UniProtKB/TrEMBL annotation:
Protein name in the entry: WxL domain-containing protein
Domain WxL per the UniProt entry, residue ranges: 998-1138
Location of the Putative adhesive domain: 70-153
Pfam families: Big_6 (PF17936), pAdhesive_11 (PF20596), Pectate_lyase_5 (PF20585), WxL (PF13731)
UniProt organism field: Listeria rustica
Domain Bacterial Ig, residue spans: 744-831
């Protein structure tokens, strides 16, 4: 055999703190042209704690016609700072007998007197801080009727514990020169201590402030008297707001009426606080002129007292009364100087002539008049008494303004809100009424807990009624509100207690009071209503119409026309035929209860009566005898609410209250029970004759006690709600009690529990609370509630999942009453969860022996029944293949004693000299041979050739995933077609492998030759035998030459077919060829194949059976012997060339 080549093939295997700068802050002021004309104030500190001193430096550079002014410099020192005269004298070096600095405690002014001989143009003032706050110090002087003002110096007083945040140095401000605001008396005012605010303490300062429209706050610092001519009325500049703070002082306004013109474009609110006021002007001291009651003008009086003539003639404006306010009109008063001042025009003047008046919540007002009503309201004309306010009005005499009533209005509504009281009283010399509303559709409202009380104490003219409203009027009394009219000493007066026009409506609500009384001998009405009137009474506390009058033509109720009606829902009705009754005794008629009474009127006479009661006798009597024209008094009385209680009940049959109901109720009340099927139908008829179906169980005795027993063998069940309803005189009340459950539930049942359970189920008493406990520790696991059918499903807390196998649990049931059952059956938790683990990555070399310790291959072993070897077993169920390098796996089975198991895959990485690895990957690549002709032209193709030839493979650690596709050639080492050895680097995930690539120039050689040809065993035949080979007969020729040329193969027998003993058979091997003559092999080399179109690669010459040319054994008869083995040798020669 010639030249069988052996080829070594090597595989290449292949991865910024912001900085804030504060600039100087300039003061805002009015510049003057002369820089030397100024007064400047500075201080050694502008912040000081209470008790500390502040030193103020003043500089006076004012000039007057080029000569120094001798006008005094005045420094305004506000409250909270105290002038220290001794320290001031000491710091300025001033002798005691010649001190130019003085301080007036009332005006708060420090005066620095100037003389031409001894001018004090600069110096220091020492002040002590007396309280915390911000204090503004200014200085001024008046030269040639011009006021020169210093800069404003702000000093902050701090409490001891107050921290000083920053120190702000006052900027030097230019003094402002402004004209002095003059009053009619040309008296200079004092400059405001702050913008819009001024202290007033005499006539001059007060009038100056009134004249200055920029002033919005006046602070009265002492009592004073206003100087004014007789009945002066002066208009002052209007401003949106002006507040006069009296600070507990007094002003005698004398004859001044200071007023402000207002309009929708110039609104104003004038507020007076904490001031004692005196005045003689019949328009009042202060007023607003204009307005139309639409809210853009208002005067607010808060905590003031006023003595004198009328207080307010502000016809189109509103009045608000707050705090405690007193007004009293007098013929003379003693003023603050101790002088008796006559008030000749006080009599006949209403205290308020305004649009609307509001008594603010919680306020208290007391007012007295002289021969006039107290309020004369126009425009809208509402009176509003706020919640919990108290208003006391006393009017005297007759005539004057508001001649008809203490409150006389052309408007709409009088409202007395919750908890408020409005009391109107006339003295014994006044024939005036209480309220008169002449407006359209007026309404008087008395809310819950409020009172409106009118008391007249003298005979009234026929048109001066206790209360009067025009047409479409309404009176509404709500809740526990009360409206009373008490007309005493009325003599022959024919004025009515209540007089309302057509379409009047009176609505007296639940628990409300409406009591009207009048006496005398005149022909009058307690309630006199116009056409189409409606008087409604609904479960009211008291509607008492009492006519203590001897005139037989007088009537309790009169309604014009025939459409008027009186309606009452649920009341006790009492009637007296004679005058002079009081209380609730001596009545001639009693109708109780009366429901839905309806009484029709024609004038003062009843024309029809309907209504229902419990008995036909009462109902008939009411319809026949209720005639108010025959009564001097009728009282619609409140029927008390019915009360009822019920004793405790139990389901414990050993106790009486398991079958007997006891309790209390209003005496003689009828009681019916419900809530249990054990309660039978009652046997007592309803007291209401019209109710023939309801049967009551028991009637309370005269002391209010009752008792009712269930039939024999009947008991209440725990948790039942038993209701008792009591009825009497049309009123009913209901009370309920829940039957106490004093019997423990039966033990619940507990169903099977697995470790994976999310709920635990079973049965228990319906609606009971089920608790699940650990039997070993008695620790509560979870709770739930059984449904109405007695089944439960208790959720296992997430933090307790999965449950620990083999733990024993039990359940208890607790009913709504707190009774607890015994233990349920014990249940052991079944283990249904397989243990878990993860495999440990294994590294071996080819040919190593794998471990037999299955447990050593696992980590993170966990089982809910425990991880001990007594619970867990481990076995290797699949061994890895350690015969070849690469990635493989083993399998380990982990099982618990309950039979739950899992199979864990173990990653195994097998190494040899063709592999490398790091913590992320293992890379395999082989050295290999290349021929020059195989080197491609492009890098991409060359890289792929390297990966293919090196048989590069890669696996991810620990997952074992195939990451061969991620292998890259990182360095080809200069690989080219030039023969030689090259070091090529492959990489994946940071792992690198170097392979050796050998480049050869190339050869023509046998790649493979069939080593042995067998023709099998045959029997000698008398005929010629042609025998095919049993195996393939092939020659593989590889051509790796850089330049190819023709080549051919020859065959030659170097040994004929022979036995071991030397017997030879010639011409026995023949090459049979299609369309060519057979070729016998002999000792001469004969060409059997020729390639005239050579190319790199491997050519297979196949001479097997059934091929185009086949090597056959040709045996002629008699040429071979039996029982012999014949062999031969063929020499194959590969030759380069033709």
């Amino acid at each position: 055999m010639i030249g069988k080549s052996h080829i070594l093939r090597t595989a290449l295997v292949f991865l910024i703190v912001g900085l804030i700068t504060l600039g100087s802050v300039r003061g805002w002021g009015v510049d003057v042209s002369n820089e030397t004309d100024r007064i400047n104030l500075t201080a050694d500190t502008v912040k000081a704690k209470v008790g500390q001193s502040v030193t103020i430096d003043f500089t006076d550079k004012t000039n007057s016609e080029n000569t120094r002014s001798t006008a005094p410099l005045q420094v305004k020192i506000p409250e909270g700072l105290k002038f220290d005269d001794q320290k001031t004298a000491d710091i300025n070096g001033i002798p005691d007998d010649n001190n130019p600095v003085s301080f007036d405690d009332k005006t708060r002014l420090a005066t620095i007197n100037q003389t031409l001989d001894h001018p004090m143009r600069d110096g220091k003032l020492v002040l002590s801080v007396m309280s915390a706050g911000e204090f503004r110090v200014t200085a001024n002087k008046i030269i040639d009727k011009q006021e020169i003002i210093s800069n404003e110096l702000e000093i902050t007083g701090m409490e001891e514990a107050q921290n000083e945040v920053s120190v702000k140095k006052p900027a030097e401000e230019k003094a402002a020169i402004k004209d002095v605001v003059e009053s009619k008396t040309k008296t200079a005012g004092i400059v405001a201590a702050a913008a819009g605010e001024v202290d007033v303490y005499d006539n001059a300062t007060f009038r100056a402030a009134l004249n200055n429209p920029t002033i919005t706050v006046m602070n009265v610092t002492q009592d004073f008297v206003v100087t004014s001519p007789l009945y002066e009325t002066t208009v002052y500049p209007t401003r949106p707001n002006l507040v006069i703070n009296g600070n507990g002082h007094a002003i005698d306004f004398s004859n001044l009426n200071a007023y402000f013109n207002v309009s929708s474009s110039a609104p104003m609110i004038l507020t007076v606080n904490d001031l004692s006021m005196f005045g003689q002007n019949y328009y009042g001291p202060l007023g607003l002129s204009g307005g139309s009651g639409t809210g853009y003008s208002k005067i607010v009086y808060r905590n003031i007292s006023y003595t004198g003539a009328q207080l307010s003639a502000a016809y189109g404006s509103d009045i608000d009364i707050g705090g405690v306010v007193q007004t009293k009109q007098v013929n003379s008063y003693l003023n603050i100087l101790g002088i008796t001042i006559p008030v000749p025009l006080a009599s006949g003047q209403a205290t308020f002539e305004v649009a609307n008046i509001n008594f603010l919540p919680g306020s208290t007002y007391t007012g007295e008049t002289l021969s006039a009503g107290l309020m004369k309201l126009g425009y809208i004309g509402n009176v509003d008494v706020g919640a919990n306010a108290t208003v006391n009005i006393t009017t005297s005499g007759n005539g004057g303004e508001a001649p008809y009533a203490g409150i006389q209005t052309d408007g709409s509504n009088i409202s007395v809100h919750s908890g408020a009281k409005l009391n109107i009283t006339t003295d014994s010399a006044s024939g005036r009424g209480g309220i008169r509303i002449d407006g359209s559709a007026p309404k008087i409202l008395v809310e819950t807990g409020a009172e409106l009380n009118v008391k007249t104490n003298a005979a009234s003219d026929s048109d001066k009624h206790g209360i009067y409203t025009g047409g479409n009027g309404k009176i509404i009394v709500q809740g526990t509100g009360k409206l009373t009219v008490n007309s005493q000493g009325s003599g022959t007066s024919t004025a009515n207690a209540l007089n309302m026009g057509d379409n009047a409506s009176i609505d007296i609500g639940n628990m409300s009071t409406f009591n009207l009384y009048s006496d005398g001998t005149g022909n009058k009405r307690i309630v006199n209503l116009g056409n189409n009137a409606l008087f409604k009474i609904a479960n009211s506390a008291s509607v008492d119409l009492n006519l203590n009058n001897s005139n037989t033509s007088s009537r309790l109720i009169s309604m014009a026309g025939t459409a008027g009606k009186l309606q009452a829902t649920t009341q006790r009705v009492l009637a007296w035929n004679s005058a002079g009754s009081s209380g609730k005794t001596g009545f001639n008629y009693e109708w109780v209860p009366m429901f839905n009474a309806a009484v029709s009127y024609s004038g003062g006479n009843v024309t029809a009566v309907t209504g229902t009661s419990y008995t036909m006798a009462t109902q008939t009597s009411f319809g026949t005898n209720f005639r108010t024209q025959n009564f001097k008094r009728v009282l619609f009385d409140y029927i008390p609410d019915v009360t009822v209680t019920i004793g405790a009940l139990t389901n414990n049959t050993s106790q009486t209250n398991s079958h007997v109901i006891t309790g209390t109720a209003t005496p003689n009340a009828y009681i019916i029970f419900s809530g249990s099927s054990a309660i039978p139908t009652g046997t007592i008829n309803s007291p209401n004759a019209a109710d023939t179906t309801t049967k009551y169980h028991v009637q309370a005795d005269s002391s209010g006690n009752y008792s009712f027993s269930l039939p024999a063998s009947q008991y209440f069940s725990g948790g039942q709600t038993i209701t008792a309803t009591a009825l009497l005189n049309g009123k009913s009340s209901t009370v309920s009690t829940v039957v106490a459950d004093n019997v423990a539930p039966n033990p619940p049942t507990l169903s099977a529990i697995t470790d994976e359970a999310t709920v635990i189920t079973g049965t228990a008493e319906a609606n009971s609370v089920v608790n699940i406990y650990n039997n070993a520790t008695n620790v509560l696991l979870a709770s739930g509630t059984a449904n109405g059918s007695g089944t439960y499903s208790v959720v296992v807390p997430v933090g307790s999942r999965p449950l620990v196998p083999y733990t024993v649990y039990y359940a208890t049931a607790t009913d709504a009453a707190g009774n607890s059952s015994g233990h349920s059956n014990d249940v052991t938790v079944t283990d249904t969860t397989a243990p878990t683990a993860s495999g440990i990555v294994q590294f071996f070399n080819v040919g190593d022996t794998f471990t037999s310790n299955a447990k050593s291959l696992l980590q993170n072993i966990q089982d809910n029944a425990g991880n001990s070897d007594s619970n867990l077993t481990f076995s290797i169920t699949s061994l890895p293949d350690l015969s070849t390098a690469g990635y493989t796996t083993a399998e380990v089975k982990i099982a618990d004693i309950a039979g739950n198991n899992d199979t864990i895959s173990i990653p195994v990485f097998v190494s040899d000299d063709s592999t490398v690895r790091n913590g992320q990957a293992m890379l395999q690549a082989h050295n290999f041979l290349l021929y020059s002709y195989e080197i491609p032209d492009t890098d991409a193709v060359l890289n792929q050739l390297i990966l293919t030839k090196s048989q590069a493979k890669a696996w991810e650690i620990p997952a074992g995933n195939d990451i061969t596709a991620q292998v890259v050639v990182t360095d080809k080492g200069g690989l080219s077609a030039t023969p030689g050895t090259y070091q090529v680097k492959l990489s994946v995930r940071g792992l690198e492998k170097t392979v050796t690539v050998t480049v050869a120039s190339g050869t023509l050689e046998f790649e493979d030759v069939t080593d042995e040809i067998s023709f099998g065993t045959h029997t000698i035949s008398s005929k010629k035998q042609v025998i095919e080979p049993e195996n393939d007969v092939q020659l593989a020729v590889t051509d790796t030459r850089p330049v190819t040329s023709n080549w051919h193969v020859t065959a030659k027998l170097i040994q004929n077919l022979s036995t071991l003993t030397g017997d030879t058979v010639t011409d026995s091997l023949v090459l049979k060829r299609d369309q060519l003559p057979d070729m016998y092999l002999n000792d001469t080399a004969t060409t059997i194949y020729e390639d005239t179109t050579p190319a790199n690669g491997t050519t297979i010459i196949d001479m097997s059976a059934d091929q185009a040319q086949t090597l056959l054994l040709n045996i002629a008869p008699g040429t071979v012997k039996s029982n012999e083995e014949y062999t031969a040798q063929i020499e194959w020669t590969l030759e380069d060339g033709p």
